[in-house]
Amino acid sequence: MTCIVFGVSGGIAAYKAVEVVRRLAERGFDVRVVMTEHATRLVGPDTFRAVSGNPVSLRLFDAQGKDMEHISLARMADVVVVAPATANILAKMAHGLADDLLSTTLLATRAPVLVAPAMNREMYRHPATQENLRKLRERGVNVVGPESGPLACGEEGEGRMAEPPVVVEAVLRLLGMRGDLSGHRVLVTAGGTREPLDPVRFIGNRSSGKMGYALAETAKELGAEVILVSGPTQLQPPPGVERVMVETAEEMRREVLSRCGGCTVVAMAAAVADFTPSRRSGEKIKRAGREGLTVELVPTPDILGELRERKSPGQVLVGFAAETGDLLPRARKKMEDKGVDVLVANDVSRPGSGFDSDYNQAVILFRDGREMELDLMPKRELALRIWEAVAGLLGDRAVK
After folding, report:
1. Which residue, 178, 356, 378, 374, is CA-closest to 271?
2. How far apart are CA 384 and CA 362, in angstroms?
3. Of 3, 153, 260, 263, which is the active-site residue?
4. Preceding amide of 55 cis, omega within 30
5. Residue ranges, CATH 3.40.50.10300, the chain
6. pLDDT digits over 193-250, tens only?
7. Active site residue 153
8. Where in the chain is the domain with CATH 3.40.50.1950?
9. How high does pLDDT run on average in the chain?
10. Which homologous superfamily is 185-276+296-399 in?
11. Which homologous superfamily is 3-174 in?
12. pTM of model > 0.85
């Protein structure tokens, strides 16, 4: 049985480590948890004992001062994970310090090592921390995260520990195992479209693209080859993702349809305009001499409908419904009308979620009638939950 020695250091993100350990144990790994003294003040050892099914190692020496557990742990490990990895444990690793069970185990092991940094943004940005991470990478230590977002200290920025599914996938890749989306080609759309009135003005919406970009980034981390078709946004392209920029609904239609054929998953997270001006003025429309302006709008192409007609066997089609009331009835109708496999519905009128927010609250609907209601969470975490649902469908279809 593959053995994972899992180190938990004293960061507030230790609560996330519980979920990582649980997921690894459920996959059949022999997970041996090693906690620092400070970590035990944040999460009790009994919690890790329960989710791992193994005793938790805490001290370098037993009551008689005669123990070599750091050597036995170091030798039994197929991989060593440290999550969260605080600035302190990273500094110890970089400089070869060993003054507790976790640091001595790290110094004694020859197994691959994965760290998931988690700390305050200023601590993460400090030149000493960055230098320590550089040294560790040069020695072959694998690093996952950190992410940007709200921090325990009340600030916002880099320093959040990577979400549990991302850490698990990093462990699987380190062990040479497939990720949940490995071998799949995924197309994601993001952002809003702009439908021009004249060379200066356009009809648009408030979509920031954050949900679609979170989907693209996490799909890449889960092992997929990712194409991101994006409307105008200020967001940077996720590393390793092929990004195609478009402006209008027609441009998005053209790029999506030309690329969807070889994809096992198409996720239409973009807020595509439903209407576009029937005529575009070649010059700026002047206000002078006008008491009003009437603009005729015509429907834009139904991209999701065309994808349904072109859908290849085994392909999973994911739709999104941004509503402002009667969420579930409207979402169920859209799912029926569009023929998607998964529909992610959210009420954008709710405070703190929806357009331009880093958070979202949603309901995931499935073709078989299942519905999964999710509480308010970071869009990145929601993206991971969506991919978990999609990966389940891909697995079911592979079996069939």
Report:
1. 356
2. 13
3. 153
4. no
5. 185-276+296-399
6. 999 998 989 998 888 999 999 999 888 878 899 999 999 999 988 888 999 999 999 9
7. yes
8. 3-174
9. 87
10. CoaB-like (3.40.50.10300)
11. Flavin prenyltransferase-like (3.40.50.1950)
12. no
